[in-house]
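Please decode residue identities from the backbone states below.
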């Protein structure tokens, strides 16, 4: 019995031992597995241990900066500050007096004190104080600190900043202030280069979050964004921005475009649009479009530059050959010259270019070149395709070639739509001995941490649409557009430099067909190159629908921009004036004083020395009235009229005066001016030399011989049907500088 009992105990002991050994084996296997896999139920034990006994801190990288060609910063990352108010009285420093704090803060932050007081009395440990207390500058932070307010602290945050404000903004684009998203322009298209990569540092700590002495550190270095250097020159760009602001204020156009390019390389030295924006205040943006690369529109007569080049290259242009100007029948349409189809009789083709005759270029396109050859040159000059400029959202050209009339209208700039940057690219072929350069705005991209250039642009020849001989001949003819008495480009002459160029006045299509009508409802433009014999700079300016008075013409705002920008560009590029005496080199604007009561001759001599043209009314000793108010800024060569205290002043000789100066004379003398015609003065009644005293009215006759613009139809159906599209080409405007 006892033996049986012992056997049972032995079996039970063996079973228990087996179970124990099995449990030990399972546990040991589990320990081995855990040690090998370092994981329990999907939890990484090593990571958990590191989290409990390690501390990781982010090391922030820095977004790359954008610079101009000289290294001036255009976009950068800076420190900004957010105001935080501590409200919990358990803290040593907290807001004890919300009302007083709100009153003082409200003055500095330009916020409603009552609104601030409401924030400062919330049941919270701490609060932020709204948008005006976020991303404030260091200077604003110092202002708040000087208030010495209890409970007011600052959190430092990085933000994107554009130090030059409204400056090439459509090129730069912008990011959100915290740089989380790049929204447009180069900030967006180059985001992969500019964007930073944050690093981190990891170290061991004890249970009280204290860093262990001599503990190993693991550092992952941050990668700063790459720095971008542009071809823009800040001095030239600033000249564009300032003159555009001036034109915006005076003429309030719908939009404006301007581009300055290096004729030899294709580098964009300046580019701007209006409306523009301040990327630091991107909430207020009204226009997101860079019209210079995205907007295709009918160019008007600037297109004639390339039609002329095509005809010369094909050997079919004879500048001394004559044709009958005025109108030209093309199938069922009539092309008319811009002076209501009257033309100028039988003139040479060279004069046709100077006068911007649409008939001349229609004949060249259809009778000399032929449509097929014309369109071959349209392709060669790159008007169908994008230029490939390194800016986003570029548009191609839209070329009309369905009907015979399309070749005629394309030759003088209607029906076909192209972009400003396409015109700049094509113009480099004329300015650069036939070699057409691809425009570009990015010079290089640099990894500043490694000191390496990771991307660099070099000048690239896009094609050679014409020969060097043709390009030089085109320049010679275009120079006469600016210098000849009958040239439409006279308002764009720059003293000291020879300019070659072409004016343009494009119509604007309207919904339902046809074009906008009315004074100023056009896109007025100029494509110019200087110095004319070997251009270094190409400038394109377009002003869309300026608000013009009855006596004003579209060339006024365009020439105001072109002349100042071209002068500044030539000056900054150290290009020598054409004239040896250099008297008429680049000049600063001249600000007028109040001259009333001063000696008339002395004032005349003083202003003449500054480069102004002065007309004295009468032989009196003192000035009693002046044509421009004190503080007015005039360009070199503009006219100033001074009325003297002569009791019997003579009627001045106003031959060849512009309409603008006639109205200045009316202002100074008080004599009503009855004006007939447009352009420049050809006749006056009473004649010069008569007694001005007691005169109530003068009759002034003007003519178009100097290229005054007219607004009329160029293409119309033979039956003048209102259903047919009317196409006008008006070119180009009054030379308002004597």
């Amino acid at each position: 019995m006892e033996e049986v009992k012992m056997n049972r105990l032995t079996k039970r002991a063996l079973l228990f031992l087996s179970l124990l050994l099995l449990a030990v084996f399972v546990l040991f296997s589990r320990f081995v597995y855990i040690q090998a896999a370092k994981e329990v139920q999907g939890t990484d034990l090593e990571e958990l241990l590191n989290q409990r006994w390690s501390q990781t801190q982010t090391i922030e990288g820095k977004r790359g900066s954008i610079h101009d060609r000289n290294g001036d910063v255009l976009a950068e990352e800076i420190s900004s500050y957010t105001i935080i108010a501590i409200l919990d009285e358990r803290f040593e420093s907290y807001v004890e007096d919300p009302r007083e704090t709100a009153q003082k803060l409200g003055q500095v932050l330009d916020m409603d004190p009552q609104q601030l007081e409401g924030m400062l009395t919330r049941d919270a440990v701490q609060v932020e104080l709204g948008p005006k207390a976020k991303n404030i500058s260091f200077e604003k932070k110092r202002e708040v600190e000087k208030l010495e307010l209890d409970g007011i602290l600052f959190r430092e945050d990085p933000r994107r900043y554009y130090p030059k404000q409204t400056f090439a903004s459509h090129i730069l684009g912008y990011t959100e202030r915290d740089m989380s998203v790049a929204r447009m322009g180069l900030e967006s298209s180059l985001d992969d280069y500019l964007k930073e990569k944050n690093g981190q540092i990891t170290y061991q700590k004890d249970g009280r979050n204290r860093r262990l002495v001599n503990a190993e550190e693991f550092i992952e270095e941050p990668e700063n964004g790459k720095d971008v250097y542009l071809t823009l020159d800040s001095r030239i760009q600033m000249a564009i921005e300032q003159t555009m602001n001036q034109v915006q204020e005076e003429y309030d156009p719908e939009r404006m475009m301007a581009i300055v390019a290096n004729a030899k390389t294709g580098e964009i030295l300046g580019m701007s649009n209006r409306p523009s924006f301040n990327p630091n205040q991107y909430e207020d943006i009204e226009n997101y479009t860079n019209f210079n690369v995205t907007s295709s529109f009918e160019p008007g007569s600037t297109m004639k530059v390339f039609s002329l080049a095509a005809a010369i290259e094909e050997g079919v242009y004879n500048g001394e050959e004559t044709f009958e100007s005025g109108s030209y029948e093309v199938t069922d349409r009539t092309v008319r010259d811009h002076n209501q189809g009257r033309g100028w009789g039988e003139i040479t083709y060279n004069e046709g270019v100077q006068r911007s005759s649409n008939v001349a270029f229609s004949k060249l396109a259809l009778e000399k070149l032929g449509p097929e050859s014309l369109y071959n040159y349209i392709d060669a000059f790159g008007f169908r395709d994008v230029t490939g400029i390194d800016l986003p959202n570029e548009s191609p050209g839209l070329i009309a070639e369905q009907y015979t009339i399309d070749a005629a209208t394309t030759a003088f700039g209607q029906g076909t739509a192209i972009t400003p940057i396409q015109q700049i690219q094509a113009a480099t072929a004329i300015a650069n001995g036939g070699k057409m350069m691809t425009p570009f705005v990015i010079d290089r991209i640099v990894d500043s941490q490694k000191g390496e250039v990771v991307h660099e642009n070099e000048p690239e020849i896009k094609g050679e649409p014409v020969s060097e001989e043709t390009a030089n001949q085109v320049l010679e003819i275009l120079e006469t557009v600016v210098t000849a008495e009958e040239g439409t480009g006279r308002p764009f002459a720059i003293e000291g430099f020879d300019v070659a160029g072409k004016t343009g006045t494009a119509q604007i299509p309207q919904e339902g067909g046809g074009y906008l009508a009315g004074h100023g409802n056009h896109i007025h433009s100029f494509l110019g190159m200087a110095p004319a014999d070997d251009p270094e700079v190409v400038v394109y300016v377009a002003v869309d629908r300026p608000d013009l008075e009855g006596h004003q013409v579209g060339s006024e705002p365009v020439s105001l921009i072109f002349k100042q920008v071209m002068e500044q560009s030539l000056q900054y590029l150290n290009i020598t004036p054409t004239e040896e005496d250099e008297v008429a080199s680049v000049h600063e604007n001249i600000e007028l004083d109040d001259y009333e009561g001063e000696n008339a001759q002395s004032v005349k001599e003083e202003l003449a020395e500054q480069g102004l043209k002065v007309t004295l009314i009468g032989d009196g000793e003192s000035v009693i009235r002046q044509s421009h108010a004190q503080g007015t800024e005039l360009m070199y060569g503009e006219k100033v009229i001074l009325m003297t205290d002569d009791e019997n002043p003579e009627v001045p000789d106003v031959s060849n005066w512009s309409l603008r100066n006639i109205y200045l004379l009316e202002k100074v003398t008080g004599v009503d001016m009855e004006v007939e015609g447009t352009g420049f003065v050809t006749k006056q009644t009473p004649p010069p030399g008569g007694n001005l005293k007691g005169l109530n009215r003068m009759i002034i006759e003007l003519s178009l011989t100097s290229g005054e613009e007219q607004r009329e139809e160029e293409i119309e159906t033979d039956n003048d049907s209102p259903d047919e599209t009317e196409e006008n080409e008006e070119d180009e405007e009054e030379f308002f500088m004597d």
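Observation: The chain has 20 helices and 35 strands.
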